[in-house]
Predict the structure.
Amino acid sequence: MGNTKAVTDSEFDNEVIKSGTPVLVDFWAEWCGPCRAIAPKLEEIAQELGPQVKIMKLDVDNNQSTAAQYGIRSIPTMIMFKGGKPVEQIMGNHPKESIVDLIKRHLS
């Protein structure tokens, strides 16, 4: 993870909810093939969009509390947070352009 950052249950509030920047959280797991396939796209997006958005990755196996709080039943699931609130959610391995479009809809 170069441009994306791992987040845990204990860090979620500070890193995501209290963030002044919109945050895309990728709920994933190491064993999930589609999750691994989407990771390089998220790295590219994080590099391209830089300081406009934070892209965080939450391992659902090691951070079950946060995953349960947001009703994550299928991975990969990505939730866009703005102002500390979830504003949009997508599931599955989407094309890079679709993920960028989702993020840009929520940038000020």
Remarks:
- The chain has one domain: 5-105.
- The beta strands are 5-6, 23-28, 54-59, 77-82, 85-91.
- Helices lie at 9-17, 33-49, 64-69, 96-105.
- The chain has four helices and five strands.
